[in-house]
Write a structure and sequence with these properties.
Blueprint: H1 2-12, E1 22-30, E2 35-39, H2 52-62, E3 68-77, H3 90-99, E4 105-108, E5 111-114, H4 115-118
Parallel strand pairs: 3-4
Antiparallel strand pairs: 1-2, 1-3, 4-5
Bound molecules: tetrahydrodeoxyuridine (THU).
């Protein structure tokens, strides 16, 4: 858990956030034991920016990894230590929930939370999903 958070902290160093100056890092532990990291990547066309968690999920899925065991997330204003919990945004929770069980451990700076604590229900198109 602490090791995964260390990966998230390292990923946060790559955050590209010239507009918000809020740097976020995420690290996903995949079922095969590898770690996929991501950072937030902003854009001059503001709404095109992407969060750290979705960067990590999209990297993993594009490499054939669709099963995840845990995610660590840390975020804080650039230059500050990410000591306060950075709860994933609703869009990232929906994307995570597509690939994760309800009780996926979400590791934040204040401890471990099950995914369902933040997203008790999610959108699906069919009951099978
Ligand atoms: N951000 C993330 O990377 N993850 C979240 O869950 C919430 C917010 C990013 C998006 C934007 O680049 C910056 O934090 C400020 O909102």
């Amino acid at each position: 858990m602490e090791q995964l958070m260390e990966y998230a902290r390292r990923a946060r160093e790559q955050a590209y956030c010239p507009y918000s100056h809020f740097a976020v890092g995420a690290a996903l532990l995949t079922a095969d034991g590898t770690i996929c990291t991501g950072c937030n990547i902003e854009n001059a066309s503001y709404s095109l920016g992407v969060c750290a968690e979705r960067t990590a999920v999209f990297k993993a899925v594009s490499e054939g990894k669709r099963k995840f065991s845990a995610i660590a997330v840390c975020g804080a204003p650039e230059g500050e230590s990410p000591d306060k919990p950075c709860i994933p945004c609703g869009a990232c929770l929906q994307v995570l929930a597509q690939f994760c069980v309800d009780d996926l451990p979400v590791i934040l700076s204040d401890g471990v939370h099950p995914l369902k604590e933040f997203l008790p229900v999610r959108f699906t198109m069919t009951e099978q999903e």
